[in-house]
Amino acid sequence: MKFYNRFVSLFLTVRLVKLTEVPFTSTQNVKMKDVLLKDPIELEEDLKYWKIIPDLLKEAPKQPMQAWWLDGGWTGTEAIFGNEINDPEITAEEPFWLEWKTNNDTFHTMMMVGIDEKPKKYTTFKEKQYWIIVNIKGFDFLAGEYLTEYMGPDPPENKGLLRYVFLVYRQPDKLKFKEKKISSRKDIYRTNFSSKAFADKYNLGKPMAINFFRARFEY
Predict the structure, then answer these.
(1) Are 13 and 24 in contact, with CB atoms under 8 Å apart?
(2) Other C-beta atoms within 10 Å of 178: how many?
(3) d(Cα 82, Cα 102) in Å, to the nearest integer?
(4) pLDDT per position in the chain (219 positions), as tens?
């Protein structure tokens, strides 16, 4: 799928450059611009409103990130700080585009985790890993190292809306990650995960960028 995304990304970039006759950047898209320019105070308010703080984090990252799925049209579907994305056909494949503010010489780790997989009485190792890419230079995630292959949300029936969070960490350098690589949707290692423990293990510090959405079981 990531090779298909790369092809489509190049195709859309060329098409948009031709239409606008200016160098293409994601911020030329109004929705993308709105997401990436979100005020840090508003971002923190959203994280507290949807209880990402304190259920996952103690404090807010300094900037937003953007995650955008293709949905059969030209507009796509975005994660927008707690919006609902309930169509499993949209999120079945990995997002077509990820972006955050950075420079092209910095390496990053990106995670997508579910934080409502276990009852609230569990305080550690309660997350489920849906996607982990490391050694991402700039925000070129397709060229990064996939530790956990993408898996779309799978909220169980009668559990209501579950939260899915994207986290981006700045790495000190290109790193060697000694982790079991996960590809199967049913791999038991997806569960009992802690993004904080993972970040601590590799000295990643606190997440620098974030976004999240919610999804419920669809019949």
Answers:
(1) yes
(2) 7
(3) 23
(4) 554 555 455 444 433 333 233 333 333 343 555 899 999 999 999 999 999 999 999 999 999 999 999 876 667 899 999 999 999 999 999 999 999 999 889 999 999 999 998 766 666 788 999 999 999 999 999 999 999 999 999 888 878 899 999 999 999 999 999 999 999 888 888 999 999 999 999 999 999 999 999 999 875
75's tokens: 């507009």
Residue 30, number of CB atoms within 10 A of its CB = 8
Please state, in angstroms and rounded to a whole number, the distance separating the CA atoms of residues 10 and 98: 14
**Residue type at position 137:** K
Distance, first Cα to last Cα, the chain: 25
The dihedral of CA 165, 168, 169, 173: what is its sign?
Answer: positive
* Residues facing residue 132 across a β-bridge: 111, 148
Rounded CA-CA distance 79/166 in Å is: 9
Query: Virtual CA dihedral for 83, 156, 160, 88, nearest 10 degrees?
Result: 30
